[in-house]
Amino acid sequence: MAKKKPISIQNRDIYQRMNFLYQAQMHYKHLLPCYFNRQMKQVGRKVVLRIDPSIKRTICKKCNALVEFVEYRDKAIFECKICGTRKSFGDKALFNDLNSEIKTL
Amino acid sequence: MADEWHSPIPSQQNQNKIAAENFAESFVTDLTSQGAFTQKVKGKSLLLDTLSSKAAPKSRKLKTLSRKKRKELKLDEITNTQYSTFEPLHELWKGYMAELLQDNTDLPTKLLKCDYHGAIITVIESKVPTNIHTAGIVVKDTENMFYIVTKENLLKSNYCLI
């Protein structure tokens, strides 16, 4: 973020909480990340906080599990191991700027 | 009595029909051209209201899981109750609290709003006497309950009042 203004105090608490929850879910596999991610979204929903799309892409929209994109042919794909939803981006070049989110198959 | 109202005398029926037709024609010719009447109205059944254009009901898109599905997938259950798996979470929580409590402004609301996942909690008072002096790491935190994992790798839950 290029802004130099400090974030307003009320939202700051919630940002810290969401940050904590997201870091917490990174430590775990399988179902616990679902729970933490859901909490994170719920916490942010009340104050209508935006989550950066690069983080949103790592969370399955349906079940909130931690998810990784995989390069397949020309696309970037993931399949959630828990709820089975699949998502594919036709243009894998979308990901090239953002810290190599994709792992090659 | 009802019959008399609803069924006119047979000889009258035809007369009524002719009378109606004649009236309609004469009434309409007063207002519009005769041609339009014979083409569009006379002898035709007219639609007085638009037909509802609703197709098959829209299928609900897969944006959220229903409660049934959530239970099936066990998304809200805590299955792993090993104390050792939650110790790193506790360390993370300590760091989070340290950051929160850096400025001493408005501590009570901070304590209310903060996240308790990973905190070590001891039960002091409880309706269930066996729960007292139980201590453990908070794993799940709902509106009324704290779910704790104790050092004996047991999951305990206690009603909390704030």
Outline the structure in words:
The N and C termini of chain A lie far apart (32 Å). By secondary structure, chain A is of the alpha+beta class. In chain A, helix 1 packs antiparallel against helix 2. Chain A has one domain. Chain A is built from three helices and four strands, in the order H-H-H-E-E-E-E. With 162 residues, chain B is of the alpha+beta class. Chain B folds into two domains: 54 residues, no CATH class; 86 residues, Roll (SH3 type barrels). Chain B has a four-stranded antiparallel beta sheet, with helices on one face. The relative contact order of chain B is 0.09. The model of chain B has no long low-confidence stretch (mean pLDDT 81). Chain A: Belongs to the eukaryotic/archaeal RNase P protein component 4 family. Chain A: One of its GO terms (molecular function) is metal ion binding. Chain A: This is Ribonuclease P protein subunit p21. Chain A: Keywords: Metal-binding, tRNA processing, Zinc. Chain B: It holds the Pfam family RNase_P-MRP_p29.
The averaged pLDDT of chain A comes out at 80
Structure annotation, total helices of chain A: 3
Architecture of the largest domain in chain B, CATH level 2? Answer: Roll
**What number of structural domains do the residues of chain A give?**
1
Element string of chain A (H = helix, E = strand): HHHEEEE
Envelope shape of chain A: globular
CATH topology of the largest domain in chain B: SH3 type barrels
Straight-line N-to-C gap of chain A? 32 Å
Number of domains of chain B: 2
The profile of the biggest β sheet of chain A is: 4 strands, mixed
Protein name (chain B): RNase P/RNase MRP complex subunit
Organism (chain B): Boothiomyces macroporosus
Family (chain B): Belongs to the eukaryotic/archaeal RNase P protein component 1 family.
Main location (chain B): nucleus
